[in-house]
Amino acid sequence: DNQRAQGKLTLDVFQQEANKVVVQANYENADKTGKGFNVTSDVKVSSKGLQLDTGFDGHAALNYDTRVFSFGTNAVCPTKDFSFGTYMFVSEKVFEMYGKIFNEVVLKVAANYDLDKRSATYNSLFKQLGTTPVVVTGSVDGLTTASFSMNKDKLFDVKGQFDLGKEASVNVNGNGKNLFNGKVALDDSHFLATNFKVQEQEIKDFMKQLQTSTKQESEAARKAYADKFETLKTTVTGQFKALQSSFPDFGKLKEDYKTQWDKFSAELQSDPTIKKLADFITETISAVTKLLDEVTKTFLQYYEKVSAVVSDFYKEVQEAFNTKFLPMFKDLYNQIEALVFNLYEEFVSLVAGVFERVAKALKGFEEDFNKLSAAMAELFKNVSLYFKEYVEQFEKEVRDLWNLLLQQLQTLPGLEVLKTKFEEFFAQYAVGEQVAELVKELLNLVRDHLPTEESKEFVQKLSEYLSAKLTKKEVNDTAKLKELFELQVKAIRSLFKFVSDLRKEKDVSGWFNNLPVSFESFKRVSYVWNFKFSPLNCLREGNCFSLRDVLSWRPYGFKFTELFPPFTLHGHVGDGQHIFTFDGRHMTFPGSCNYVLAQDAFENNFTLVANLVNGKLNSLTLFDKTATVELAKDGVVSFDGTPSELPAHKGDLAVWRRYYSVTVMTKYGVTLLCSTDLRVCHVTVSGFYHGRLRGLLGNGNHEPYDDYLLPNGQITEDDATFGNAYGLGSCKPVSGLSHEHVSDNFCNSLFGSGSNLRLCYFLVPFKNFKDACYDAVKTATDKKDAACNMALMYASTCKLENIPVRIPEACAKCNVDGKDVELNDDFNVELPKKQADVVVVLDTKVKPEFVNSLVADLRKEFGSRQMSDVRVSLIGYNDDEKYTYLFTTNGKLDFTGTYPNVPLDFPKVEKPIKTGDAKVDDFAMKLFELTFKLRKDLGNSAGARAVAEALGYPFRPTAVKHIVVVKSESLSDASPLRLTAAGVTQEVLSVQGIFVSTVLPLDDLTIGGGQDAKKVVGFSKNNVFVLSDGRKRPEGSPDLRDKVDYKNQEAIELALNEEGFVFALQNYDLLEPKQKKAFTTTLSAALADLSFRTQLKLECFCTLKYGLFPEQVCHVIDTNVLPPVKKVSARG
Predict the structure, then answer these.
(1) Are 401 and 930 in contact (CB under 8 A)?
(2) Does 656 map to a domain?
(3) Which intervals hold domain VWFD (predicted)?
């Protein structure tokens, strides 16, 4: 049956019937199948005479069979165009959504998709109020065709298209003029042939027009919002006046009554039948008239008072609406509007800047790229012949795997028997009756310990109702729920009275002693079930659930593990003395000792200790039950007191290095992420330690009020007392700390409305960080540096939440040869100079003997060519391991140590668990192997990730740059996707002035001219290096280049750039020790000679890596390759 409820209230106390106010409410669930719901509801307040028409309606529907979900809301205010609404519809093939404000659609998305055919089309628009929309459309058809378009009236029009086997193209128009036009051929005869045209001047003009248009639209939208609110104020004021003037006039009633009574009195006195009683009637009528006059007068006086009260009430309501509610609503709307506009303007500015810089770079290389496209087309011609076939085969494999999975699941042995047994097992139990009995017992237990009869009666009736529903007995829901509501009101009143009486008696121990359990038992409730909410903070400060909590559920920032308890705890340490607790408090503590930051106070699973020296963080030490690791400045690490290089792993502790940070992690649930200089440290602790922690970072129970919990269990509000309590050993007490924060102009600018950090304000509260900035500059010698440290601390915290912020420009500078370069400033560099940066990407299966010899010879050969400052960095990977590694020496990335001659023990890639069923295990292994191959083909293998890591290396702009990839496997299984990615990467690195060479086993290597293929060291496009039998140093031989033959021609040729090398690693293992040395010497000398004789002119600019760290990015603007020297080997 339909579930329906209706209600109507009519308020008719006005002079005219048309002015009556009617309130109507309806609710209905029209779903009769029991396989979902279809709920509609509406509330409407109307009055024809008062021109009042406002209300709200909504619906939500879900059908499990048809898999359709819809949701919609609509709110109408008593003002023209004040209509707000949302709508969403989702099915297996359709998605629709729109949102409107002030009766104007500002967001609309419509998509149709067919998962079976792997096709989709979409159409969307976004706009600001009163402006023209941005319209985005597109379509996808499998992996073969796709199209995309985005336009905004006549301002810009972007169109892109991809058609496998034909071409990919992008066309950008702005202000009616073409800005960019590019095409990449994908047909067999012209594969990857590229042609593009960049209109640099038109782009600059368009960028100016875009920024101007954005500002104009923002101003127009703000004005539209202001006009709407002014209209609302005028309308509501008029309706209040109309409502006030429409109440009845009892003065007219009095006059009508007096006239009628005088007429009635005259008729009685003139009646001849009662003439004899004239005197008596006259006296009686006079008395009654006097009495009625008094009653009327009293009634009118009462009415005038009521009318005055009502009038004052309307005035106060109107005044409150105009002076409090409306400004508050406008302020809230303005804050949201400012956030949205800032995001929009920031996005437009970012896109404009990127587009302009890319256009500038493309313009500089337009001719070169067009020439290069012809070479790439020739290079990839053979690849293209089977590229389409590979894509089609890949699609077929995925479909076959899916069908195989369904067949395997359907044919699992005993599946039907298991299903039957499951149904039989649960059929013998009356689950509803057992649950009803359990609920009844629990409620009876509650009832027996309630203090009032009314509350006991309510619980008893609730128990009876729930038992009847659980056992599926017939119940009059309407009558029962009405009865329960009335009993609930009585129960609540009785409990309030009971508590009030207890407060008067001042002795409440008697009743609590009758409870069946102690409150102490609640401490033993599993700490898994914790809530990320502070009820005490809500009651004390009004800091309850807010819009910020809703917006923190960001689509781009979703962390699935953060959506459910136990919630991870996050604490921060900035510049040593600035402590930000797990529960959101801040203190400045300039100590000089060892202090406990965080500790498992119950089971002692871990302890984190900070060593402060005059308020600066000198080191951090993490203890767990298996080992101890100390992290000092510059990434220097010690395990159990012994210095250790990175990466390192001992017991349950692991430490690894990235370019700008070091991470320490223990399996006991603690992760420490710090910048290498320890200015910024983030401490992450598993939510399983909820309320179980002690230390300067607080107890982690989501209650800020008790963060300053002392080791003795007492709570203090004094920073010094709290900090000193967690000192270890004989620590000099810190005193004189103040909670007052003195304002600073520079801090105000860093955390102001115009700062780069403003995008994060609404999602990560910044007050604590701003206060920390005030405290930092108060005592600092270099106040700017101290303030910027806090800005970096806040920006880094925002980045952990996946919020795209950048540190303020005032805090970012690049340093080039000892000179400061402002952010976004350009500068030119000519190479080679005295510096060289060589990054070796290393498969850890390669023998350590080769690695150590290669590193030593690289340093030696580059140094012999007037490059005295040589840095060699190692990045390790293994296909069987999860992660890539940066190897260090004394915490630095410049590797000067010895590569370990023992197997590295790091987390492995998990293979499928054995179930014991041959079919299941075989299917799981095939799925694993297919997934592994797919990851490699898509560029997500361990080797690809290691190369990507090398691409992000912070090369010095004044250094020669070389990446050497050392692989333990050949390119025999290289797919078209991998080859294409490798080719594109080569070209990108070439533009950046980075040389790339590869060392790997070459399949079926042969060489003519009477030479032994086992003596081949390597070759480039124009040269071959072969070891000689005597002591003569090997030289490059151009004559032998055409006589070298090997398997996988396309793959090897692609690994060679214009001046790169490929070296035959398999020959190294066949050589004698002296010849092995000559092999690595020849290899290193070839790379050094190439770098030395290639003269480059680079244009560089200062930018921010990850939005936090200043870094230089360069591209080549001129190249001159000198003739090769006679010998490629150095002395020795």
Answers:
(1) yes
(2) yes
(3) 569-736
- 936 and 895 assigned to the same domain: no
What is the pLDDT at residue 327?
Answer: 64
Cβ proximity of 1030 and 1095 under 8 Å: no
- Residue 450: its pLDDT value, please? 79
Q: Are residues 226 and 310 in the same domain?
A: yes
Other CB atoms within a 10 A radius of the CB of residue 624 amount to 21
What is the share, in percent, of the chain residues with pLDDT greater than 70? 69
Query: Residue 742: what pLDDT?
Result: 87
Give yes or no: residues 1054 and 1071 share one domain. yes
CA distance 615 to 635: 20
* Range list of β-strands (E), 849-1005: 869-877, 885-887, 959-966, 994-1000
Q: What mean pLDDT comes out for the span 243-266? A: 59
Nearest CA among 1095, 1092, 1023, 1032 for reference residue 1063: 1023
* Identity of residue 76: V
Q: Are strands 885-887 and 680-685 parallel, antiparallel or unpaired?
A: unpaired
CA dist 130 → 79, 100, 123, 332, 343 (Å): 18, 12, 21, 20, 18
The verdict on whether omega for the bond into residue 566 sits within 30 degrees of 0, i.e. cis, is: yes
Read off the pLDDT of residues 546-567 as tens digits, 9 standing for 90 and up. Answer: 444 444 444 434 455 566 677 8
Beta bridge partners of 617: 612
For residues 340 and 222, is the Cβ–Cβ distance under 8 A?
no
**Of 556, 561, 555, 573, which Cα lies nearest the Cα of 532?**
561
> What is the percent of the chain where pLDDT is above 90?
25
Beta-carbon neighbour count of residue 887 at 10 Å? 23
Q: What is the pTM of this model?
A: 0.60
Whether 128 maps to a domain, the answer reads no
Closest alpha carbon to 536 in 493, 572, 583: 583
Q: Are residues 686 and 718 in the same domain?
A: yes
- Taking CA atoms, 788 is separated from 341, 678, 1011, in Å, by 26, 14, 63
Tokens 């007052």 belong to residue: 740
Rounded CA-CA distance 58/73 in Å is: 4
Q: Residues 165, 187: contact at Cβ < 8 Å?
A: yes
My answer on whether 870 and 1011 are in the same domain is: yes
Q: Are strands 21-29 and 3-11 parallel, antiparallel or unpaired?
A: antiparallel
Residue ending a domain, choose from 503, 521, 540: 503
| Domain end residue (candidates: 503, 522, 539) | 503
CATH of the domain at 977: 3.40.50
- What pLDDT does 525 receive? 39
User: Which residue type does 7 have?
Assistant: G
Q: How far apart are CA 683 and CA 678, in angstroms?
A: 12
Cα–Cα distance measured from residue 342 to residue 348, given in angstroms and rounded to the nearest whole number: 10
414 in the same domain as 461: no
The count of domains in the chain is 5
Domain that holds residue 617: 568-739
Residue 597 · residue 604 · CB < 8 Å: no
Q: CA-to-CA distance for 778 and 785, rounded, in angstroms?
A: 12
Question: Are the C-beta atoms of 194 and 369 separated by less than 8 Å?
Answer: yes
Tell me whether strands 648-650 and 21-29 are parallel, antiparallel or unpaired. unpaired
Q: Are 493 and 454 in contact (CB under 8 A)?
A: yes
Would you give the end-to-end CA distance of the chain in angstroms? 96
Distance of CA 88 to the CA centre of its chain: 23
Residue at 395: amino acid letter: E
CA angle 161, 164, 167 (to 5 degrees): 55
More confident residue, 631 or 198: 631
Q: 191: which 2 tokens?
A: 């594969």
Out of 9-18, 353-362, 553-562, 918-927, pick the least confident.
Answer: 553-562
pLDDT digits (tens, 9 = 90+) for 482-522: 788 788 878 887 876 776 665 455 444 444 444 444 444 33
Q: How far is CA 495 from the centre of its chain?
A: 46
Q: For 512-627, list the strands marked E by DSSP.
A: 569-574, 578-580, 586-588, 593-600, 606-613, 616-624
Looking at the structure, tell me whether residues 950 and 1032 fall in a common domain: yes
One DSSP character per residue, 43-60 reads EEEEETTTTEEEEEEEEE
